[in-house]
Design brief:
The protein is an alpha/beta fold and about 220 residues long. It has one domain: Aldolase class I (TIM Barrel), CATH 3.20.20.70. About 45% of the residues lie in helices and about 15% in strands. It has 9 helices and 8 strands. Helix 1 runs parallel beside helix 2, helix 3 runs parallel beside helix 5 and helix 7 runs parallel beside helix 8. GO terms for molecular function: deoxyribose-phosphate aldolase activity. It is an enzyme of class 4 (lyase).
Amino acid sequence: MKLNRYIDHTVLRPTTTLEDIKHLCMEAVEYDFAAVCVPPPFVKLSNTFVGNTTTKVATVTGFPFGYSAIEAKVAETVLAIVDGADEIDMVANILAVKNKDWAYVEKEIATIMPIIRNHGKVIKVIIESGILLEEEIVQCCELYAKYQVDFVKTSTGYAEKGATVAAVALMRANLPANIQIKASGGIRTFDFAKELIDAGATRIGTSNVVALMKG
């Protein structure tokens, strides 16, 4: 298993510096990681660092709580694309999910998807699985499958509970084969990353990349 091609090398701290971004991108290129995932203001800079390599540039929208208005997420998505992002990790409106406002959740993804597809980008929808009930995870999977998102992603890393093998397995059982799963949040060892991959994850979002690669 070539773990490097599963990894989104990630730094999303509000204290992130230019030097952090340079170091992140240089490591990602050195190890040939799938992507770097960076705060929106650093998308342009990250593109200059990764250059014409196979490492993509991802960023976040609606991060980290997901309750931004749809119009705000649209604006963030458009700006990220203009700045050169290849992949968008969008936090779903968890407030709407918890309040069973599925019409709003659907309106949100229905509004965003044409922008993603018209520009040939990749979207990963973060559902914050650690704070959802099983039935909520299943309903999210069914809804996002309807709109053919590229990935459903477990976590932001900011909730009290991150990725779990059980959540990834549940998502895999309720998504069509063409929709991938990104596991993130609390992934600090090679063994845990491998468990998540074995359960169905095809991307691993982590800031603990050295420990994973040494594992």
